[in-house]
Amino acid sequence: MRESVPELCRKISACVPRIICFVGLGIYKVFAGLSKVEPGLQHETYEYKDHDGLSDPEFKSNLKDESSLAKRGLIFVMPSTSGRTSAYQNPEKLACFKQLKYLRDCVAAGPDPLNIDHAVLASLGPQTRSKYFS
Questions:
Q1: Rounded distance, CA 21 to CA 121, Å?
Q2: From 32's CA, which of 12, 42, 55, 85 has a CA 20 to 30 Å away?
Q3: Are 87 and 73 within 8 A, CB to CB?
Q4: Does 113 sit behind a cis peptide bond, omega within 30 degrees of 0 on the bond before it?
Q5: Are 79 and 97 in contact (CB under 8 A)?
Q6: C-alpha torsion 33→36→37→42, nearest 10
Q7: What is the C-alpha to C-alpha distance for residues 119 and 12, in angstroms, rounded to an integer?
Q8: C-alpha span between 82 and 12 (Å, rounded)
Q9: 110 phi and psi angles, rounded to 5 deg
């Protein structure tokens, strides 16, 4: 699967979404080259560059530096929505969808930089599950 990452980067960079949502922790682990991932808003943002389909993703750490998000995408990871996934039950999945909706509303309403109220985001989902809240 890792060999497909550069092509995914090319597709993401062609669309330039403000939020990139990975449905399934495993796929984000492969994409980011991480061994452990928690659901929710990630510290890293995806930095848009001209991708030739040959390079790995480039991340910018420190989400709290919200300057110039025009050239970066927020990364949100949620558990698989499959009924076979037993590690996360429906209430936890619903909380992730609520957080994602809140982020979408922030992106739609605010200019750059985004005005994300992190207390509101925390109140919508399981705080201990995301590395953003640790």
A1: 16
A2: 85
A3: no
A4: yes
A5: no
A6: -70
A7: 29
A8: 24
A9: -110, 150
pLDDT in tens, 44-87: 888 876 655 455 566 655 555 555 566 788 899 998 888 777 77
pLDDT tens string 95-115:
899 999 998 888 887 665 566
Q: To which residue do tokens 């509303």 refer?
A: 105
Instruction: Check the CA dihedral 83-29-32-134 and report its sign.
Output: positive
List the structure tokens of 75: 């990364």
Residue type, 63: L
Helix axes of 5-15 and 25-32: crossing angle, nearest 10 degrees: 100
Q: What is the pTM of this model?
A: 0.77
Nearest to 71 by CA among 58, 53, 89, 56: 58
At residue 17's C-alpha, the angle toward residues 47 and 110, to 5°, is 95
Backbone angles phi, psi at 98, to 5 degrees: -65, -40
